[in-house]
Fold each of these.
Amino acid sequence: MSPFLLTRTLPADATDAALRADVLSGLTAQPKTLPPKWFYDAHGSDLFEEITRLDEYYPTRAEREILIARAGEIAAASGAKTLIELGSGSSEKTRHLLDALPELHTYVPVDVSESALKGASEALLAERDGLSVHALVADFTHVLELPDSPGPRLVVFLGGTLGNLLPDERAAFLKSVRARLAPGDGLLLGTDLVKDEATLVTAYDDAAGVTAAFNKNVLTVVNRELGADFPAGEFDHVALWDPDNEWIEMRLRARRALTVKIRELDLVVQFEEGEELRTEVSAKFREEKVRQELATAGLRLDQWWTDAAGRFALSLATAD
Ligand SMILES: C[S@@+](CC[C@H](N)C(=O)[O-])C[C@H]1O[C@@H](n2cnc3c(N)ncnc32)[C@H](O)[C@@H]1O
């Protein structure tokens, strides 16, 4: 039996406290916002997996194509004994890397979604004898207490999740990753690329409405956890391209004027008809921007690979 540990790095009520703080500051701000990490309860994680299988959602297929083509090179360049994956979700694509790293000692998936971590870890342990899996239920934007495990370490951040952080959050996040890397350690980063607006918007507004359900799930989470009464059916899913910031925004637009009570916060929030709540940004990148942001954090871009259609990129970086 392979060793398995699941650590909650946060005290039991920390998630609740963080949700309260985010909901209070986001819903009293103008325009209203909520951070995307609150999509991912068990149902939200399942909906995200469904999104990855949609025809319109090309990023997962494009990133998998690169991983399959480059796993050997990544493994040879990193020689990783420990693989730390931030926002690991189902760890489904990561299997291509794990297969290429027979010497790997420890896999550390990190995610806010405990259900996703458990599902992924159980599946991996059933398949891979001898691999030690130490799952962390943690927020990767906070200081991470990583387990003691042998180097070299490769930090993996896939799915374009970096793009969900705003520019100042991205800079702080990349610096904190850099601070955890020793000489010889690396970062493997997946970033979605700037492309035509129609392809981008369609990827976030599929015909079957799965992304709309995922978007509205954040309201269900706030209703359940904080005793709110958001009528999810009274909001429309909106995905739009912001060409100045080069990011997609997902929003929820109130169909009519609404008054929402959030019991646990003793808060009443008014929405005007047509008012929008921003629930996610998903920044799209160009090679130069990735190189620059990595350099600012003290990371050197060594390899830049894209899928054949040039839709998505994987970068391999090392500490300077
Ligand atoms: C866009 S999905 C990507 C999942 C997977 N890496 C992939 O490529 O398919 C983002 C993942 O990051 C997790 N996540 C989002 N914000 C997080 C945070 N602040 N800390 C830890 N995990 C987070 C979500 O639960 C989800 O599993």
Amino acid sequence: MARYDGKKVVIIGGTSGIGLTTAKMLVDEGARVLATGRSQGGLDSAQRELGEGALVVSSDAGSLTDIDALAERAKAEFDTFDLLFVNAGIGLFAPFERTTEAMYDDVFKVNTKGSFFAVQKLAPLINRGGSVVLTTAISNVKGMPMLAASGATKAALRSFARTFAVELAPQGIRVNAVSPGPTDTPSWGKSFPDAETVAHITAQMSDANPMKRMGTSEEVAKAVLFLAFDATYTTGAELPVDGGQSQL
Ligand SMILES: NC(=O)c1ccc[n+]([C@@H]2O[C@H](COP(=O)([O-])OP(=O)(O)OC[C@H]3O[C@@H](n4cnc5c(N)ncnc54)[C@H](OP(=O)(O)O)[C@@H]3O)[C@@H](O)[C@H]2O)c1
């Protein structure tokens, strides 16, 4: 019997990077996964990569209409499920002096408001003994240049993890957060205009890290699965996967 046989999982932001790797590990070990994303290319390639164990659907994580539709889809596909992984997020890199109102609103809409309402709408479908994992970031506790708005969106998520944990405890649902440090995913290519800038920024990030490298999406996904299925006496916690950067 495979490790996650019979488990049903919803991953918001499951078509790339950390979310896709988590979906792959789950499907490979017998789980059924409903994964969301936005770009058509990402949706198509994720469906191809994940195969029949997954259903990949388009859903804008910042749209309440789409979150309602996703809850209906999850109910139709799974009736109830075991893990909600709320992972979609935008990494906005901008000096605060040059952050516009539109940029600020967009990053809070996807990272914070969307995550809040995703848990509100989907938690009623989670089985007793199931859990929620939120993806935060180490910029929620560290002053990091260009990450004022992004870091604040993730600080709000850290707070949600505590409050959701206490409010969902009576239903037997644990809520935790995984906090990645700089992690090698396609997100860097989406945040910066060209490959040269990406190489420069990621080299700087590696140098600033106590372990002198970036993490991998596999390293973060393993922590997600630990929080989701193994950490049965852990709720309201945030687990850093950051080469020690938030602590050292
Ligand atoms: N990589 C890092 O260094 C790092 C560090 C700290 C925290 N994080 C956090 O980790 C999480 C995953 O990041 P990643 O690095 O794996 O990024 P990624 O490779 O860009 O993947 C992000 C996923 O979220 C989806 N997504 C983003 N905005 C969405 C929206 N509005 N609606 C629906 N789906 C949306 C993306 O789909 P589309 O591609 O279709 O938009 C994709 O599936 C994010 O919350 C990020 O803030 C990452």
